[in-house]
């Protein structure tokens, strides 16, 4: 069984390096060059086996998702990804598992020009912590606190697919490969986040469910909102597998979508549609920001609807 430093060498041999990496893997810390006129955006997420991904998930998918959830945070801040670190906790030094993990992790890193510049390895229950760093022109980061009364609430893509895939896995019954793929390999909307600079007023990525994550924006902005459930974008696959009420539950509280939810003045709607259409990414207005605190959910008939849960929180259950 290889030791810790052999595993680190194995990772270093595969990690690409950007020109702005002054010192990467191999020293006590990385040295990175931040360009003039930019601010550094930093995010960190931990994934734990059985909590953030089902036991038995392919290691390449685990690697892909470990980076994707961090790039999604950068996307919500309108930051361009640049560097990351990786701390791996492994039950053993399985080189084949590590190589497959790196296949997925570095596939996504290469796609977005991200350099792996450091980290750590240790023995223990399977988990990984990624810290991702992005760059944004000074003063242009999207924050949760910018939503204003009267603005539209948008979401990218479709909602509920990943939660549907997880629900099917838990039931151990017939399952959709498309829904499971959305759970295992979420798409971080990095280009969308960059396109929304100067157009959106606030944003958040949807990791814990639309109701909970939009709630963070409302709290930070000191506003409330109305969501029209009939507008929630739904894939044909999700509609084929779940009835309407169950779909709303998955879309609002299921989590793991990693789409963007953002607010913007109605006058910017055409610009937003054009910017995202250029990326071939659908986006939908699902509600409006209101003055009254709280989140109101309306059915297509105009009635109030209350979800059975509010979204994922650690120490109150588990994703997987």
UniProtKB/TrEMBL annotation:
Chain positions recorded as Mg(2+) 4 binding sites: 28, 43, 73
Q: Which residues bind Mg(2+) 5?
A: 208
Looking at the keywords, is Acetylation present?
A: no
Instruction: Name the Gene Ontology molecular function terms of this record.
Output: kinase activity
Describe the reaction catalysed, as an equation.
thiamine phosphate + ATP = thiamine diphosphate + ADP
Domain PurM-like C-terminal: residue ranges = 148-297
Q: CDD domains of this UniProt entry?
A: ThiL
Q: What pathway does the UniProt record associate with this protein?
A: Cofactor biosynthesis; thiamine diphosphate biosynthesis; thiamine diphosphate from thiamine phosphate: step 1/1
Binding locations of Mg(2+) 2: 45, 73
Look up the EC number in the record and give it: 2.7.4.16
Q: Which UniProt keywords apply?
A: ATP-binding, Kinase, Magnesium, Metal-binding, Nucleotide-binding, Thiamine biosynthesis, Transferase
Cite the binding residues for substrate: 52, 256, 312
Q: Where does ATP bind?
A: 119-120, 144, 207
Which positions are annotated as binding Mg(2+) 1? 45, 120
Residues holding Mg(2+) 3: 28, 73, 205
Name all PurM-like N-terminal domain ranges: 26-136
Family membership noted in the UniProt record: Belongs to the thiamine-monophosphate kinase family.
Miscellaneous section: Reaction mechanism of ThiL seems to utilize a direct, inline transfer of the gamma-phosphate of ATP to TMP rather than a phosphorylated enzyme intermediate.
PANTHER family, sorted? THIAMINE-MONOPHOSPHATE KINASE
Q: What is this protein called?
A: Thiamine-monophosphate kinase
């Amino acid at each position: 069984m290889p030791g810790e430093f052999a595993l680190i060498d194995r990772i270093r041999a595969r990690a690409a390096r950007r020109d702005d990496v002054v010192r990467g893997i191999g020293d006590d810390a990385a040295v990175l060059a931040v360009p003039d006129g930019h601010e550094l955006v930093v995010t960190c997420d931990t994934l734990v086996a059985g909590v953030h991904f089902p036991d038995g998930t392919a290691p390449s998918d685990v690697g892909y998702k470990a980076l994707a959830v961090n790039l999604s945070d950068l996307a919500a801040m309108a930051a361009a990804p640049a560097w990351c670190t990786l701390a791996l906790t492994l039950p053993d030094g399985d080189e084949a598992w590590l190589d497959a993990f790196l296949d997925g992790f570095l596939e996504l890193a290469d796609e977005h020009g991200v350099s792996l510049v450091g980290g750590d390895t240790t023995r223990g229950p399977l988990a990984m912590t990624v810290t991702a760093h992005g760059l944004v022109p000074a003063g242009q980061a999207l924050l949760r606190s910018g939503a204003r009364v009267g603005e539209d609430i948008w979401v990218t893509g479709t909602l509920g697919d990943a939660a549907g895939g997880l629900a099917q896995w838990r039931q151990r019954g017939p399952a959709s490969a498309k829904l499971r793929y959305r759970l295992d390999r979420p798409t971080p909307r990095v280009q969308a986040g960059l396109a929304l600079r100067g157009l959106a007023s606030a944003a958040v990525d949807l990791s814990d469910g639309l109701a909970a994550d939009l709630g963070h924006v409302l709290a930070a902005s000191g506003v409330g909102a109305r969501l029209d459930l009939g507008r929630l974008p739904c894939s044909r696959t999700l509609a084929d597998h779940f009835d309407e009420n169950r779909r709303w539950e998955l879309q609002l509280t299921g989590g793991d979508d990693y789409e963007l939810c953002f607010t913007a003045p109605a006058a910017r709607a055409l610009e937003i549609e054009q910017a995202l259409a250029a990326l071939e990414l659908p986006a939908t207005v699902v509600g409006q920001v209101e003055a009254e605190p709280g989140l109101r959910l309306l059915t297509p008939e105009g009635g109030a609807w209350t979800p059975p849960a509010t979204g994922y929180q650690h120490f109150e259950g588990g994703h997987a």
